[in-house]
Amino acid sequence: MREVFHQALEDIQTRLVEIAELVTVAIDKATIAFETGDVSLAEEVIADDARIDELALSVDELAIDTLAMQQPVARDLRIIVSALRTSASLERMGDLAEHIAQLARSRFPERAIPKGLKSTFVKMGKLDVSVARTLVELLRTQDLAYAAQIRDADDLIDELHATVYEKVLSEAFSGDVGHVIDAALASRYHERFGDHAVSIAKKIVYLATGDWTGSTDPEIAAADERTSHFGV
User: Fold this and answer.
1) Region 21-35: what's the mean pLDDT?
2) 37, 68, 112, 140 — which has fewest CB within 10 A?
3) CB-count exposure of residue 143 (10 Å: 0-12, 13-18, 19+)
4) pLDDT at position 208, please?
């Protein structure tokens, strides 16, 4: 029975990595569409989100079937529950990429980025893409060094998010109400994208170390002999 359980965990991990890869493609395309006004690219992101939703559902179904048939307890149960929550976060990250693409489409043929904020959103976009790529590696390897990178990048995204609000609320900002709304929404989507990645990273750290604070101290990581299958 343990062999069956481990095979189920391998399948879940493989599917989560696949979802994370699709999310990476989605946020990459969405940020380019937002920066350049490429409506075709935005449409691709919006259409492809259905695939992310489909895969997330398949992970949930597999995890629930595993719960019902294997009836795991203790650590094994935490692994399955963490997989369900990770799936939900990845699905939400895909939605956030889609929301950014929708903003780009709604402003076409103009660009959605308000004047004076282009460099800020370019930085946020690059950070989110980097976070997504790092998350793929974290899910594939369970190497906790990747969790630390995600946390650090998210701190930078938060700083940029605060900068956007400061600029659009200042008297010097020349955009209209629509620009303010677009900037606030886009910034929030980028910020939440990073937050979901951090949430997933914390789950991986917890499964590997038993530490829910999200600590990724190299000594802790080195002392913990991790394998694949979500740290089993």
Assistant:
1) 97
2) 68
3) middle
4) 85
